[in-house]
């Protein structure tokens, strides 16, 4: 087994951060990576839940074994059992040969259930049974198959609320909620935006170098960001979190012809959002006018998803609706 120092280096490489909350979270990860306990990863869409799940596996004792990612939201409910448990020949019309399911493919490694809240209640019950009994049977079969993989799950919804409404099984919730890791949204770790943006720029730089000869005119090597561009990046609320930041940097890298990414290569929505304060100072808006325009911009970016917008604004949904009526934001 590798030394603790070696594993910390790997975690630091996987998650470059200056944020105190993220450092605390990584310290918790360091303590649990080698322990066979279920891990529940919470966080908004785009904060890096998949990346964290893969890192827990890569830094743990099971790192040489399979890591199987199951996207619960993308698999049709009527196919989920066959995907999870596999099936025997003759189970249904097209079942000509035995098929190994994802649980069996994971062997003694790690199985990661992405967006577990998307499972129906009957599927939750079957998954719970497999986790608790450490075995299952393929569809159409009678022989037990051992299941010893580590379980990591994630969701971007309020599981406590689903449990309270009877939409998520309480017993499964308690079974998977042994260690909970909550990834903060990007707007709460703004000091990490320059680090993350620089990392995405390095990847984009490699992609630019690999362009086929003659496909585009020769361009300068991308080295960094203009200070004004970094100011825009750090001031933007990032409703799409790290995934949105990655896309913005990749787009800017394609458009920029100089060696440093400038404001002009950033998406217009970023420039519009961060220009609000400058405009407010220049035109001497009242606080109400600034608040009205900012709320309107956030509602536009979130496509009037009031719960998401309220989270970004740091207020509850009821308060947001009251301000929407106050300012006539229909």
Can you characterise this structure?
The protein is α/β, with parallel strands linked by helices and 330 residues long. The protein contains 15 helices and 11 strands. The protein has helices at 4-14, 20-32, 49-58, 77-85, 102-106, 121-133, 159-164, 170-176, 193-209, 227-235, 241-255, 268-283, 287-301, 306-313, 317-327; strands spanning 39-42, 67-71, 86-87, 99-100, 110-114, 135-137, 144-146, 150-155, 179-182, 224-225, 260-261. The strands form 4 sheets. It has a 5-stranded parallel sheet. A two-stranded antiparallel sheet has the order 3-4. Helix 9 crosses helix 11, helix 12 (268-283) runs antiparallel to helix 13 (287-301) and helix 14 (306-313) packs across helix 15. The termini are far apart.
Name the CATH architecture of the largest domain: 3-Layer(aba) Sandwich
Strand order of the largest sheet: 2-5-8-1-9
Low-confidence stretches: none
**Helix count?**
15
| Number of β-strand runs | 11
Cα distance, first to last residue? 59 Å
Q: Would you tell me which CATH topology of the largest domain applies?
A: Rossmann fold
| Major β-sheet annotation | 5 strands, parallel
What labels describe this entry?
Rossmann fold; about 325 residues; alpha/beta; Helicase, Ruva Protein, domain 3; five-stranded parallel β-sheet
